[in-house]
Every structure is written in structure tokens, then in C-alpha cells.
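Entry:
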Amino acid sequence: MIAVGHLLLAASLAASAPAGPRALPWIEDDYAKALSQARAKDLPIFVENWAPWCHTCRSMRAFVFTDKALAKHAGQFVWLSIDTEKAQNVPFVLKYPIRAWPSLYVIDPHKETVVLRWVGGATVDQLRKLFAEGRRAAGGGGPGADASVARADALYGQGKYEEAAKAFREALPLLAAKSASYGRVTESLLYALSMLGRHAECVDLARETLPRLRGTASEANLAASGLDCALALPKENAGRAPDVAALEKAARAALDDPKLRLLADDRSAVYSVLVSAREDAKDEAGAKALAREWVANLDAEAARVKTAEQRTALDPNRLSADEAAGDIAKAVPMLEASERDFPQDYNPPARLAYVFLQLKRFDDALAANDRALAKVYGPRRIRVLLVRSDIYAAKADAAAAKKTLEDALSFARALPEGQRSDSQIASLQKRLEAPAP
């Protein structure tokens, strides 16, 4: 799990290509069916909450959930996959609010409560541990440390970050650093602190626990997320500079450790926050050098993929890297190939519209945006409309830009509860009321 804040628009317009053969028997978008089966079999429900625009979701679906090593776990849960953008899943989202994507839940089918939650991507090894902890949590958590972790997990699953942070703080000293739960609990606490805006505590936790989790999958996550929190500290904070320096060094070490088998998506997130750190230091040359390294790393990953789905899952990260390196035009052939391979996927043309906008190819940008709008569904339509408004604004067509913003606001207001965002509506209103440049 890497939940860093530095995400370029390109990364948020991730692929939604159809998933390849998956190793587990997922029930797609049918909570009632999953609940009925779980109760009949007396099994917990394992939920993959995803969205078509979520690049980490796409990485998981292309690289992890297709791994045949997971098949032996098929009988341990009832498996439910929820596309949170679909209108039919609004009742599920209302019952179990999703605050970050992807979110993996373990649900007790009898109480209908989330007993364990994981935010972000996971390797196959991390998933195995998560499965074991999820079964234990669904069974009540057991005595001692397990009970403390289960209580914290329940609060975290409900999105009660203040209470969850306190509970995770109490549980962490009860766990051995080499226990299966230690890394996950640390990362969950780190995420809760970040969501609460308690960046100094987030930094302290990352620096304190990094030595204990060196050589594990959590190392890169802690370093990158801790660095992101450090960058969020006020510039006048006396400890900010040494914190940034220490965590920047730790993130770089994680990238350079050949023993850490990071997912390409997680490695990309580390590069992203390292680029942010160099930009924060006004080190333009250093940021560009890192971005070029990031590009080379992702290009090498793309050369090794086995399926078109895996290749297109890398597109958003590759686009982010190309943009950071100052060579966004390089992404055009890649995105055009993805649109040919997945003609029903709105994301390749949506990303192309953004790229063509940056290249001032406005007619091409509008044509690509038209193709995306014909396919996009759910709240993501607002983002596609915002790019369209930006295209019109760049063409100096103020009337069309305003009309597109009005369309986006109307659509945002019409979304059902569970998908409607008051903060997004307020942001659109503010943008409409702003004086024309």
C-alpha cells in the first residue's frame, strides 16, 4: 500500500480494460448474491472495491489477481468485486463507504460489518497474509494482541480514523516486529494519520518503524508515504528539512534494493514522491534526472509484459513519468495502441485528450474527449468534462468552457447519494463563479 498525495492528472485517468483470467472465483457487482453465499457457507466476504479510473486497481487486476498462486485460497472466502462507479452498486457504497481506491475489505456476513480493511495495492505475499488475518478477524480476532488489532481494524473499516489511530497505537507495542500483522498495522496507522492531516505524527511513525521493517514490502510504502507527509509539513517547521532528507534517502534505498520485489505501480509511486521532493527543493535538474530514470524503468517493465491488459495497466504511470520528464508527446503512440486494443475503454481517449491539450493540438483533444464522453460512466464523467472545459478555455472559447462546467455541475448534483460529492460540487461552483482570465 502506497498512498502518496503527488498524483498527476494522467495517473488519475487510469485504464478500465476488461480483466484477464483471474485466479479467484469473483462475484461481480452483486452484494446480495455474495452475502447469501457467505451466510450459507459460513464464510467471510473478501471485497475488492475498485474503480475503472484507479491505476492501482488496474495494476492489481492485471498483475496480481491473475496469479495462479492465489487459487488455493479460493475456498477461504466468498469473493466479491465491486465497481464503485456503477449506479447499481450505490447501495453497497452507502453501506460501506469507500474513501480510497482500491480498498480491500473483509466483511463479517452475519453482522455485515467490515472487520479488516487494506488500502492500496498488495503483492501476492501480502495478500496471503491479509487472507490469514482476515479469517482471524472474522472469527473475533482471538486473545491478546489479536483482539487489540481486531478492534482497531473494525474502527478503521468504519472510517473512524481518530478512534482507529488511537487503537492501532495501543495495538502496535503488543506486536513483535516480525509478526505477520506488524507491517500492515503500521501502514494502516500511517494512512489514518495522513487522512487526519497529522503529518508530523505520520513522519515520526515512518522514521521510527522503518528500521524494524527494512527488507519487507512495507519498507517502500513507509518511506514513500512518510516522505509525502514530510513534504506536507509547513515550510517553517524546524524539523521539516531533516525529515525530508532522511525519508528521501530511505525511499531511494528502497528503490535500489534488488531484494524488494515491488509492484511496478508501487515502484512508480516511490519515483513520483521522490520527484516531488526534488521539485520541493527547487532542484529542477535532479527532478528531471529522476523522471528520466522513472521513464526508463517503466519502459523496461512494459517491454516485459505478457498481455495487452498488463501493458495498458502501465499507461497512466508511464504518462505521469513522461510528463514529469518533459516529454509528454512520447505517450501518444502508447495511448493510441491502448485505444485500438480496448475500444470500449474510455480511459485511453480521456488520457489522449489531456495529452493533446498539453501539446496544444486542440482539435485532436476535443475529438479524443468526444470518444471518452461516449463511453464514460459514473462520477468519472465529471473529470472528463473538466478536461473538455480546459480545452475550450485554451482555445479562448469562454462560452463553451463555461457551458461545459455547467454541464459538469448539473451532472455532479444529479449523482445519487454515495456517489455525489459536496466538496466537488462546491469546487465546480467556485470555478464557475471565478472571473474569466
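The CA atoms of residues 196 and 362 lie 40 Å apart.
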